């Protein structure tokens, strides 16, 4: 990273020497992927990439561009900057555009890449699928999934400062699905995420799949009628709920454009919107989270940022300068590099303890599939359970269920939480679009919510 920083600072000096106002952002990735399909390794690939993003501003006009980056292309990039700046005269004025401000200045760089991930031997990744295949040799299952691992970095500077801000880290994320060929092709899933290879636990993944397999093959499958149910969501399912809820709650840009589920007239920072047992924070210094990044890609310094405190809305992310300019606001964070944490409670934290705690009919949902908004303004959504939905009663698993459909609202769910586990788990929330950028939510291992609306199931003849 040191060489990259020096190169970006040299390019920034070029901006200043030519009286050009602008921002330069560097991003890179090293990605390794092993994919398994129908119990065979179908892909084993590695790739690397570097890009530079150029944003220039002159008065009320702005222009941007991007290109591949290498240390050998510095002269070419200078030519690109010059040509781009010449074109800015032809750009329309942006009425609300305000002058560029300096990015944060200070020692906030963080370089924590685990080279065991950056240079991972693909045999380590393949061995996971081999171990699962060995465990289920006699069970007639098909294995599918992916093991992704890699390194990513970003570096930002603008013409109002002298030094770059940068971050470099690593991540792995794993998803494995078993299809039970002798059992109506029912499915099971296990997943894992981490920032150091030492956090990868092959035995734990295999054990979880075996536990779920035994439950699904030794209990009967039943159906449930539509209605309101007490539901225990696994960390994976609850993280999905939190992630989607966050799009409609924590992003100030959506709030200002009235695309949020919050009413600008009645629900503001300081309003109580959720139950008192909900506290959510973004704190890059918290040792309990993954991917604590003290600087944003937008060049802002990041520190503890409470979002929900005992149900009260404490903050919203304002990450985009253009939106902030439009509404006369200040950029206060960078949601793109946040690592949200839902604080724990005092509920059960192991699978067995969770099952024993359910003394009346309760549905266990391990994963929510195809979640989407049905009415964003009201925070209403739909989604289906998948990979092992159980009916729990009198402290034991009574049966496994057809997948159930949820049609509910985040307002109702986050105001009806009975308990949250006393221990947390890390859940991957990154996607595969664009350049590598690790993302996760840290949340309780299990969360019990009352009066969840189930409107249908996947049982034959049911919708």
TrEMBL record:
Signal peptide: none annotated. One of its GO terms (molecular function) is metallopeptidase activity. Residues 226-456 form the Metalloprotease TldD/E C-terminal domain. GO terms for biological process: proteolysis. This is Metalloprotease TldD/E C-terminal domain-containing protein. It comes from Halobacteriovorax marinus.
